[in-house]
Design a protein that fits this description.
The chain is 41% helix and 22% strand. The protein is an alpha/beta fold. It has a single domain, classed as 3-Layer(aba) Sandwich (UDP-N-acetylmuramoyl-L-alanine:D-glutamate ligase). Helix 11 runs antiparallel to helix 12 and helix 12 packs across helix 13. The model has no long low-confidence stretch (mean pLDDT 94).
């Protein structure tokens, strides 16, 4: 089967709450930085979720993880997509697989019998639309080369890898194997830096992937600065241009910067009333990849990505209704 995008990422169930300013004090007490992604242990996450359930309505749940969210977006816009990941044969693992099927995503994931639970991300969206994430990686941290679907990589136009995976030694090996297989079959490779702490603390691991070949790099401004170890974005760009011929740097509400074969461009952001920024970057990446698979140039793809992200932040949750994707695409093309 011919595929547009094959992705490799942490298979996570997102559990999302809308919180008030009062609960932000609880985050301060736990020394969790607002707006960040923090890795925590399962017991602490369970405790936080119990407190939230006693205060707020039931959470919004979805199959997640950065790459998964992007792939759901690309698929919803019309791309044929596949994901590889790792879940346990437990309540959340089975939910994850059912939600993949619901979103019409091809996959090669078989729930594993294990004492280690499926990964879960607690997402707390503040009144100012900022999202704070507390993630227990669970069995997704044990992703290995055996979890790859090599034929899916070989039959895809793009392989998409999230930077979060590089924090795991076994997942890093899987990423290297995936890129090597992609290059053999002329599948293009797109990589997301994922988070500032990944860009800053796993530079060697990222370089080992970039050395194998990167056709598109996606990151935000803070990630670009952290990876390049620069305070000036222009200096950081010069560093990133050594990694990939095509680069997209998102700038939040300001839009994004793009670089393609030494040509630079700026896409202005759209003014919207944001209520939830969770998943905006993932939506952007998925929309861009969809366009590139349709042979649309990088600047137009970035414009579409900014449009899609702007629509996403106007709604609560990591993704939109299927009709919304159709309307966005209809109104743009």
């Amino acid at each position: 089967m011919k595929l547009d995008i094959c992705s490799l990422g942490n298979a996570i169930v997102d559990v999302q709450f809308s919180i008030t300013n009062e609960f932000e004090e609880e985050l301060n007490n736990l020394e969790i930085l607002k707006g960040s992604m923090t890795l925590i242990e399962q017991d602490q996450q369970n405790s936080m979720i119990s407190k939230l359930l006693n205060i707020y309505d039931k959470p919004l749940m979805a199959c997640g993880g950065s790459a998964i969210n992007s792939i759901v977006a690309a698929s919803s816009f019309g791309s044929t997509c596949h994901v590889s990941g790792k879940v346990s044969n437990d309540e959340h693992g089975n939910y994850f697989l059912k939600d993949l099927d619901k979103n019409k995503i091809h996959h090669s994931i078989t729930a594993t019998k294990s004492d280690i639970s499926t990964a879960r991300c607690l997402v707390m969206v503040s009144e100012d639309a900022e999202r704070t994430m507390c993630t227990f990686l669970g069995i997704s941290n044990d992703l290995t080369e055996e979890d790859l679907d090599i034929p899916a990589i070989q039959s895809s136009k793009y392989l998409f890898i999230e930077g979060y995976l590089l924090a795991s030694p076994s997942a890093l090996k899987a990423c290297k194997k995936a890129v090597q297989e992609a290059k053999k079959s002329r599948t293009k490779v797109a990589i997301s830096l994922s988070a500032e702490f990944i860009a800053a603390n796993f530079k060697a691991e990222l370089e080992s992937i970039f050395d194998l070949g990167c056709d598109l790099l996606v990151c935000n401004e803070s990630e670009a600065l952290a990876y390049a170890n620069e305070k000036d974005l222009e200096q950081a760009v010069q560093h990133l241009e050594q990694i990939s011929d095509q680069i997209l740097i998102t700038l939040g509400a300001e839009g994004c910067m793009g670089f393609s074969d030494q040509d630079a461009f700026l896409v202005e952001g759209l003014k919207v009333d944001a209520i939830d920024t969770n998943g905006a970057g993932d939506m952007f990446a998925g929309a861009v990849l969809h366009c590139l698979c349709e042979d649309i140039d990088l600047k137009k793809a970035a414009q579409f990505g900014c449009l899609a992200a702007s629509k996403k932040v106007e709604k609560f949750g990591p993704r939109l209704e299927i009709q919304d994707y159709k309307e966005i695409k209809k109104n743009y093309f």
